[in-house]
């Protein structure tokens, strides 16, 4: 299960302070030290850890805790709130254009789960939001990606625009969006190419695609299992493309949690969805407060 180690350590730390009728500065110091170690061990970015621990230390010796009748529980509330804030406070919704179709461009490295997530998101939009989405297969460098999206489209009985692997991806997305307009789709989801590493050619091509269709939402798909690498990748994409949100995939795996807890603070981009398995319906809207409560038990 994701966050297992982190959850265990934080819960153990919190249970020590929970019942305390009085919380001394030494208690706070000890708690902060343990929280710091737990976060570092969960592969959370060290700058993020430092800021986080400073915040809870400050708040835990502040009046809201010291003057409370249940200071131990108040400390836990502080940690819970700060964890929630760290992941973005509130649910962040998918963009919706004033004039349909809303163009959503999916970007990310190969293997991050981009193609699967495009299909999952289309399914989510139709089932949960009563939308009529269309998919566009523009990952021309991984031939299997186009077949994969076509297969998923068939399974879902959802239209997939594709022009094979020889077409120019910029033309594909442009024509795909035109077709979505002509056919009155309210969302059009573009599956773009990824590579094994971020490189200039990839970024240039994605920029051209983005300039051509001016997406309302650029969703960066990152694999939560890759920890701080995911955060570095996110930083690079975010610096070069108009990223507007993140999808964290493979949160069902035994990720330590570093990516989920660092990405928002490092990139200032909200996590909008979480991939919770390989199946088409295993995509969830990301709720920071629920995730924080899951970690703190
Ligand atoms: P792409 O290269 O970025 O398009 O990646 P794919 O969509 O082909 O996904 C790569 C692998 O990750 C596939 O085996 C997917 O089934 C798997 N995958 C994608 N999302 C998730 C997820 O949320 N959980 C799990 N366990 N596997 C996922």
Topology:
Blueprint: H1 4-18, H2 25-41, H3 46-60, H4 63-66, H5 71-86, E1 102-107, H6 114-129, E2 133-138, H7 143-156, E3 160-162, H8 169-182, E4 187-192, H9 200-213, E5 217-223, H10 228-240, E6 245-249, H11 258-267, E7 271-275, E8 283-285, H12 288-296
Parallel strand pairs: 1-4, 1-5, 2-3, 2-4, 5-6, 6-7
Antiparallel strand pairs: 7-8
Helix pairs in contact: 1-2, 2-3, 3-5, 5-12, 6-7, 8-9, 10-11
Bound molecules: guanosine-5'-diphosphate.
Subcellular location: Cytoplasm
Binding site for GTP: 108-115, 191-195, 249-252
GO molecular function, one term: GTPase activity
Report on the architecture of this protein.
By secondary structure, the protein is an alpha/beta fold. The chain is 53% helix and 14% strand. The protein has twelve helices and eight strands. The protein has an eight-stranded mixed β-sheet, sandwiched between helices. Helix 11 links the parallel strand 6 and strand 7. The model has no long low-confidence stretch (mean pLDDT 95). Bound molecules: guanosine-5'-diphosphate (GDP). Part of the signal recognition particle protein translocation system, which is composed of SRP and FtsY. It is an enzyme of class 3 (hydrolase).
User: Span from first to last CA?
Assistant: 14 Å
Helix content: 40-55%
- Largest sheet, spatial ordering of strands: 3-2-4-1-5-6-7-8
What share of residues are in beta strands? 5-15%
Shape: elongated
How many helices in DSSP terms? 12
Family: Belongs to the GTP-binding SRP family. SRP54 subfamily.
Subcellular location: Cytoplasm
Protein name: Signal recognition particle protein
Catalytic activity: GTP + H2O = GDP + phosphate + H(+)
């Amino acid at each position: 299960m994701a966050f297992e180690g982190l959850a265990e350590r934080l819960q153990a730390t919190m249970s020590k302070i929970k019942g305390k009728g009085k919380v001394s500065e030494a208690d706070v110091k000890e708690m902060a030290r343990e929280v710091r170690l737990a976060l570092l061990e969960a592969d959370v970015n060290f700058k993020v850890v430092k800021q986080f621990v400073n915040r809870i230390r400050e708040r835990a010796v502040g009046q809201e805790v010291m003057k409370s009748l249940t200071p131990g529980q108040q400390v836990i509330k502080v940690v819970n709130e700060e964890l929630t804030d760290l992941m973005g406070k509130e649910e962040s919704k998918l963009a919706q254009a004033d004039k349909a179709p809303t163009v959503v461009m999916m970007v990310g490295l190969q293997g991050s789960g981009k193609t699967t997530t495009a299909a999952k998101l289309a399914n989510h939009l139709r089932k949960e939001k009563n939308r009529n989405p269309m998919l566009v297969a523009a990952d021309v460098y991984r031939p299997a990606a186009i077949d994969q999206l076509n297969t998923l489209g068939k399974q879902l009985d959802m239209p997939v625009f594709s022009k094979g692997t020889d077409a120019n991806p910029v033309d594909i997305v442009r024509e795909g969006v035109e077709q979505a307009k002509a056919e009155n789709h309210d969302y059009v989801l573009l599956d773009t190419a990824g590579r094994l590493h971020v490189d200039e050619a990839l970024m240039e091509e994605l920029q051209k695609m983005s300039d051509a269709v001016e997406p309302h939402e650029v969703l960066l798909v990152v694999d939560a299992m890759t920890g701080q690498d995911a955060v570095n990748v996110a930083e690079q994409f975010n610096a070069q493309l108009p990223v507007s949100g993140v999808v964290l995939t493979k949160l069902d795996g035994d990720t330590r949690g570093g990516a989920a807890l660092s990405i928002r603070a490092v990139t200032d981009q909200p996590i909008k969805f979480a991939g919770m398995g390989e199946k088409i319906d295993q995509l969830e809207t990301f709720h920071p407060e629920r995730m924080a409560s899951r970690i703190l038990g």
